[in-house]
Amino acid sequence: MHRKTFVLALLFLLVSVLLVAQQPVERIDLNVIHKLKTAEVGGGGGGFGGGRGGTPRPVPIMETMYNLTDRYGPRLTNSPQFRAAGEWAVGQLKEWGLSNVHLEKWSTVPPPQAPGDAPGGRAPRAAIPSWEMTEYEGAMVSPTYMPIIGYPQAWCGSTDGKVTGDAILVANPATMADMDKLHGTLKGKIVLLGTGPLDLDFPEKPLGTRYTDSELSELVPEPLPTGGAGRGGAGRGGRGPILSDDEQRALTARLATFWKDEGALVTVSSNGTTRGSGGVVSSSSAQRNGDPTKNVPSVSITAENFNRVARLLAHSVPVKLAFNIQTKFDMAQTDSFNVIAEIPGTAKPNELVMVGGHFDSWHVGTGATDNGAGSAIAMEVMRLLKSTNLKMDRTVRMALWGGEEEGLLGSAAYVKEHFADPATMKTTSEHDGFAGYFNIDNGTGRIRGVYLQGNEMMRPIFEQWFAAVKDLTPGVITSRNTGGTDHQSYDAVGLPGFQFIQDPMDYDSRTHHTNMDTYERIQQADMEQMAIVEAFFVYQAATRPEKLPRKDLPEPRGTGGRGGAGN
Ligand SMILES: [Zn+2]
Q1: Which domains does the chain have, with CATH numbers?
Q2: Tens digit of pLDDT for each residue in 325-348?
Q3: Ligand 1 center–CA 40 separation, angstroms
């Protein structure tokens, strides 16, 4: 090489090195990744089953799933099953040697209403009592016999033993006048809520899917934060006439006891979305305002069963239905809990990395993909980090939330107690020492990337972390937000909280909030992948010199607290 060229080349190299040095360089310990993988899937490059002829050895993450679903599920917030599952989780986490394992209580009784609460005339939030179903049978008994696949709605009341009545089809009243018109026509009836058979689209798409490369890349080109493009951001479609807040409240109050006041025996509903056909029953709930023990017995049934009755009625064939719905309330049981466990940090024990997902579920399946999966993975992350005995500077704390499905209540209560009240944005010392939170709540599909939640400062950090586990995930990073789950409670007080991009699988087409959300929907390899990736991210956040970069503290929200339904 010519001497002058050589000097130029050297200079160029030096400048390049200096430029690279300016980017934050994440320290990656490949041995840590190796240890986590080995602890999760064994040393033989993955694969389970114990070989031919042998007894398969229990897989911890699937044993956790079994306990959260078949054994102790479903986990409707504050139900006896929810509490039993919580006790089981505490025992298991202690057995794994974790520290500070406990159920941290929070009250579901909302604070006294401030003026301006319950915007849009929505009913004010009500406490969540203990409730469970103890018996169900349903059938069409005339003109012929047909068993009805159905589930009592959460927090509904009981029938007086087995009741039989004429089926009638009634549109859900939208005004006082609608209710006046129905007055005197419902006594002894079993009311199908609707105007006729539901339209069921022919399902042309596959039941379960993974993201294709092009779908993933469509998530990426977002140079600027997009705002609430996430799931759960959509409003409830505007049906019916526009009412004032007072009118809406009065209507909601009357509707609460309307069917019972009118002497209807049972109300029956169904839904014709993708998830509401093919024998799938979507979960739904009765309201908890007023005295829910007086709720009319109500049931969700399959669209096909609903439609047969509706078509018979449309042909003027009288239909008799029979139901026995027994449910049990404990109105005194309104405290809920989050499940907490820790691995204390070595050098900076007062700084905190958190990992979690919501523990509660709906009651019609066993709460496997929503969100037994996220809970089992958070528990598995703790098991992996503990059993590999990795040294971490910061304390790692797991939290499994209650009350997510009722509006992110458990995580919001926790964040308010520990970090900051979004109403005032007064922060605590724990807020100062908080490094980051990782959440899983989109079913069983493996991690394909992460939502930045508008925090562009995280991009170069996540890029380097993902690069180290390239064999497991493409690591797509999108500045988009995703909503409807517990990382939002952190984001709301300016703390870095993240939800991963997961393969969709059959979450939206079959399992989400349905009776088909059961153990067999859980894909073991996906679960293992998530556990390794999330454990690695938690480890990185707990050991890098700096806490994760944060967005600015949001403006105080004031007291008009809101909270949408969870996912
Ligand atoms: Zn969920």
Answers
A1: 57-108+335-543 (3.40.630.10), 130-203+244-330 (3.50.30.30)
A2: 999 999 999 999 999 999 999 999
A3: 24
